[in-house]
Amino acid sequence: MTRWLRVATIALGASVVLISAEVARAESGRGAWLRYAPLPEALAARSRDAVPPVITSLNDDSPLVVNARKEIVRGIRGMLGRILRDERGMPTSAAIVLCTRVNCRADYPSMPLDGDLAADGYALRTVVSGGSRLLLVTSDTQRGVLYGAFALLRRIALGQSVNDLDEQQSPSSPLRWVNQWDNLDGTIERGYGGRSIFWDDGRARDDLTRVREYARLLASLAINGVSINNVNANPRILSPDLIPHVARIADAMRPWGVRVGLAVDFGSPKTIGGLDTYDPLDARVVDWWKERVDDLYRAIPDFAGIVLKADSEGRVGPSTYGRTHADAANVVARALEPHGGVIFYRGFVYDHHMDWRNLKNDRARAAYDNFRDLDGRFDDNVIVQIKHGPIDFQVREPASPLFGALEHTNVAIELQITQEYMGQARHTVFLVPMWKEALDFDLRVNGAASPVKAVVSGQTFHRPLGGYVGVANAGIDENWFGNHLSQANLYGFGRLAWNPNLGAREIADEWTRLTFAIDPLVVRTIVDLQMGSRRTYENYTGPLGLQTLTDIVGNHYGVAVEASERNGWGQWHRADAAGVGMDRTVATGTGFIGQYRPGVARVYESLGSCPDELLLFMHHVPYTYVLHSGKTVIQYIYDSHYDGADAVAGYVRSWTAIKDRVDDERYEAVLAQLKYQAGQAIVWRDAVTNWFARASGIPDEKGRVGHHPGRMEAESAVLSGYVDVAVTPWETASGGGAIECRSASCTATFRVDDQPGWYDVTIRYFDVNTGTARFRLLRGTQVLDEWTADDRVPTRTLDGSSSARRVVKGVALRPGDQLRVEGTPDRGETAALDYIEVTGPSRAAARSRSARPAPKGTPPE
Ligand code: GCW
């Protein structure tokens, strides 16, 4: 159902045109950026004139070209309200013509089809032939024709002209894959958009509709490979009974040009193969891999390849037999090679039992230390898949030095689309600006400009293969990721893999127009929000290269400043009473900086030139150390957390300004998400700043940290039934503790002594994932609000992850009022409370009155 909402004026090129925008009432997000919503009438009219009424393909009824044709018909119908004539063969009038160059030339020998197109590249051209205007979509491959079709539709959707087309594009890299960390039981490791679209209960789902839809989304981004199971692989994936299931999934994706690959377990020859070894140099193991891979290709002739995580985080690997990663990669590579398959061997290899007491130990060194000396020993169909930073998808890392070190080895960059350490889709964080930093990172190979993007495309070291792998983890939820705005990350990944020179803002702008609306206010609001979101997240989670200060031994979501310390996982920040940061210098630290080429190492090694944003990643400094910005480290930590939390509050305000300009369903969903994020940002802010205030003993020079006007701790309320409880880690609860209800129902009563006025009452409570506790807020006997704690955050304990808030706005209060919170526990959820806060204009007014300078002549107190 749709409705006409308004008439807006927007600038189109030089001219200002009156347009009317149609806003759908409800959209689930399932169509993502391929929803083909009707264009504003003025734009539609212009495109209608330029789009010929016929679509045809030449000498080609392959599923890919058929899908390309159908997609264009669907898109034009949705956006322009025109149903093209779908024909075959030589057009007799103006037409859109789809063909590979070979097929095109067969019918049009004189057609201007020259130009260099890399594999999967495409050209869009307007030509006149036999008096008819033809809009040609060509490529050397059918996949490229499909990509050209999507590119044509994108142009139309963005309101760009399709009049005199002469566009030619080739992908930056041949390999553009996503990895899904889906388990065979249907769960997804680090997936936030619901269960697997591929697997359920140990087998492929019966209904693969969503798999086909996903393949279409991936094709629209020119992604050509997907591995469909967790890199922490269940060995069963290679058992004969599973192959037909993999084949069914491959069949579903093939018509969209997406080839299927698998992640495997290196111990498989032993665990499922019945051998007594998985030594990669044992002839029986060599044969075993060959036979298994041959079987796969019998069922799936275009099987794309294998992803392997070995000797990492408890996975077995070649080290069991004293063999190298090259031995391991090559045994699988040689089985794949005759079929044209590839193996992505993950560079994410590190020891998670490192001795934290040894200040020279450093996880950041691991990828380089493990792979550097193997350079040149990998077969040509091996690609070492390197996470973009040296640790693990933290909010701020430098690019991995390994990119600059492998000159004779194919490499791919692994980017994490799923927001594991980036708010798990409960926070909006647009990752493209961060990925751009990694891709543009200049490795200074031989002292010359050598950005990471040129290494992964194979250009810098003249490698035949290379590319992009995005850990996507899309799920079966209607909006794929659990947050509408998180879809922009998959979109951005695909666009960058195609062309890493696109700007982050340009990508955000495109995505917003395609996904939400072309309305300038909507575009500006969403693009600004997305573009600032990563810096904002960094500000309230872990600035200055501290990394995401989250619970790294648990769910990787909520705040837990010390979770990284005193354990073997190696995500240390080494904050103590005297200072903070990892000394990774060559001079006095772990030597990590020495893994970079001299031109980069010099910049990081010296405090004088190390950029502030990576300072604590590279150096250990006292809290009073003065940054280039002129602030001390400690004051920056305080300020950035307040800035970050304020920015999210601003997102909520700016989002409300586009109500009625986007559909209600997504409007409400994003609003709820942003409000939640605003609350979480305050939890992070308070936890991190309190922790550092205690550690450093240095107060916030602006007096905010530890002082919260209007906040009343639950522990100091008049309690009936509720009992005090300590919260761990202490910084995740205000005052270090909370109250919980261990009987049928409890109350906490707060006395308000503010002057009469209107106030907002914020209740900070805990919402764990066991039950559905109920809450009521009363003033005297009047119920002001009631709600349930029914969220499914990944924790069953009271901590930063489960901290939630309810804001009740516009409450009239008088001195002596009693605010009562009533909690009713449910199945292990104890209706726990942290504090209430009474804030708002009346309090601000009272504050500014008391802050006014005393009138002249008044004696000082
Ligand atoms: O960061 C870690 C994640 C693991 C993941 C691992 C990896 C699939 O917490 O869930 O395992 O990275 O990339 O292999």
| Separation, N- and C-terminal Cα atoms | 68 Å
Bound molecules: 4-O-methyl-beta-D-glucopyranuronic acid
Mean pLDDT: 94
Sheet with most strands: strand arrangement: 9-12-13-14-15-16-17-18
Number of helices: 20
How many strand segments? Answer: 31
Characterize the biggest β-sheet.
8 strands, parallel, barrel
Helix content: 25-40%
Morphology:
globular
Q: Provide the gyration radius in Å.
A: 29 Å
Contiguous runs where pLDDT drops below 50 for at least 5 residues: 1-21, 851-861
Describe the structure.
The protein is of the alpha/beta class and 861 residues long. The protein has 20 helices and 31 strands. The chain has an eight-stranded parallel beta barrel. The chain has a six-stranded mixed beta sheet with strand order 4-3-5-7-6-8. The chain has a five-stranded antiparallel beta sheet with strand order 22-25-30-27-28, with no helix packed on it. Helix 2 packs parallel to helix 4, helix 15 runs antiparallel to helix 18 and helix 18 packs antiparallel against helix 19. Bound molecules: 4-O-methyl-beta-D-glucopyranuronic acid. 4-O-methyl-beta-D-glucopyranuronic acid (GCW) binds next to loops. 4-O-methyl-beta-D-glucopyranuronic acid binds next to loops.
